[in-house]
Amino acid sequence: MNADQGRGVEAELRLTRPGFELDVDLAVAGGCITSVVGPSGAGKTTLLRCLAGLERDVRGRIVVAGETWLDASRALPTHRRRLGFVFQDASLFGHLDVRGNLRYGERRVPRDQRRAAFDEVVAWLELDGLLERRVHGLSGGERQRVALGRALLASPSLLLIDEPLSALDAAARERILPWLEDLPARFAAPVLHVSHSLREVARLARDLVWLEDGRVREAGPARELLPLVGSTDDELAAALRGTLVEHHDDDGLSAVDVDGVTFFVRRVDAPLGSGARLLVQARDVSVALEADSGSSILNEVPVVLARVRRVASGAILELDTPRGQRLYARITRRSLRLLALDRPEAVGRDLFARVKSVGVAPSGTRAS
Q1: Which end of the chain has less Cβ packing within 10 Å, N or C?
Q2: Distance between CA 358 and CA 365 in Å, rounded?
Q3: Per the database record, which ranges form the ABC transporter domain (predicted)?
Q4: Domain limits of the chain?
Q5: How many CB atoms sit inside 10 A of residue 6's CB?
């Protein structure tokens, strides 16, 4: 994984504490979200703090968008680093209203260097009606939107997001996720995102960094690494991009076209032609050798077996849709053997994936 020329991040970081050592070489591409995953204590938040200049004893090298933040001769202080940081608890200033919190981020940048306009960010995050509100009266989701807006108004060369949804309830998480999804399309800065939720990572990340014991175990495209990270995690999921093509109001369903295949999902309140993201968990996918014409499962998609990963409970199958989007299926050892998918020649075989349950989120529209 190479950092995009001029926009990405290159870092070589060494930090030693009693009982823990961070030793990381990292390249983060611009124009996308890179998620950092790993068990508790792996060093995920410490990595972000090092990049932000919040760890005094870190050594190594950091170059962001061509500017050196850290090397053997200098360590740029945090207030001089062009970065935005969104914390788990939002960390808003209680003595300021929403407008004041947003303006604080904007004032960090000289006027002629600002890349994000105040009115544009406010409109995008739908904060117009909150500007005069005190932050202590905001909901958790509203607070995170304000924190994200404040970070973006600092016109960052790097955006750090640490467990942004972990303190929110399920409904609030679903409302915030579309804004996070849209970040790469609206703001060019690379985004480094930390989360324990593989559902969240599957939906947001293009690239993945897997930390264990302060070191990078794997780094690369999320679609390739998620099965490794999620091999013992029930949250392993795939995010498929599609287009909303029909509403079936009598059935409470909408139809989403994914690579020429129709998926039926719960009714989506969005206009036809809107983009949609389908979240499909590996535990909700079964595979068959032939198409099924008589089943209560509505969603069946032709796929090609790209890879088989054996895990303790059986196997994870990596399945490619007709245009190369990837699904995962978790099956037992017995099923693997009965379908003859345990043989090397099975890779490349045509199969049918039956999807029992699909989560859906419209892209480009906002939940109220």
Answers
A1: C
A2: 19
A3: 6-238
A4: 9-230, 237-362
A5: 8
Residue 365: pLDDT band with limits 50, 70, 90: very low
Single pTM value for the model: 0.73
Q: What is the pLDDT of residues 220-257, one digit of tens each?
A: 988 888 876 765 555 677 878 889 999 999 999 999 99
Average pLDDT over every residue of 121-133: 93
pLDDT reading at 53 higher than 90:
yes
d(CA 250, CA 361): 21
Contact of 341 with 317, CB cutoff 8 Å: yes
Amino acid found at 10: E
Torsion of CA 211, 217, 221, 224, to 10 degrees: -120
Provide the H-helix boundaries in the chain: 44-52, 98-107, 118-124, 140-153, 170-186, 198-204, 222-229, 333-338
In this predicted structure, the answer to whether residue 113 has a pLDDT above a threshold of 50 is yes
Query: In sequence order, what are the beta bridge partners of 360?
Result: 278
Q: What is the DSSP string of 302-320?
A: EEEEEEEEEETTEEEEEEE
pLDDT at 281: 86
Tell me what pLDDT residue 366 has. 41
Query: In the structure encoding, which two tokens stand for residue 108, read together?
Result: 């960090």
φ, ψ for residue 228, nearest 5 deg: -70, -50
Fold classification of 9-230 is Rossmann fold (3.40.50)
SS3 content of the chain, % helix, strand, coil (to 5): 25, 35, 35
Bridge partners, residue 262, by sequence: 257
- Residue type (1 letter), 342: D
Residue 123, number of CB atoms within 10 A of its CB: 11
> 29 with 212: CB under 8 angstroms?
no
Give the tens place of pLDDT for each residue, 348-357.
999 999 998 7
SS3 label, residue 123 = helix
> Alpha-carbon distance 348 to 291, whole Å?
17
Give the number of other Cβ atoms within 10 Å of residue 51's Cβ.
26
205, two tokens: 């990340």
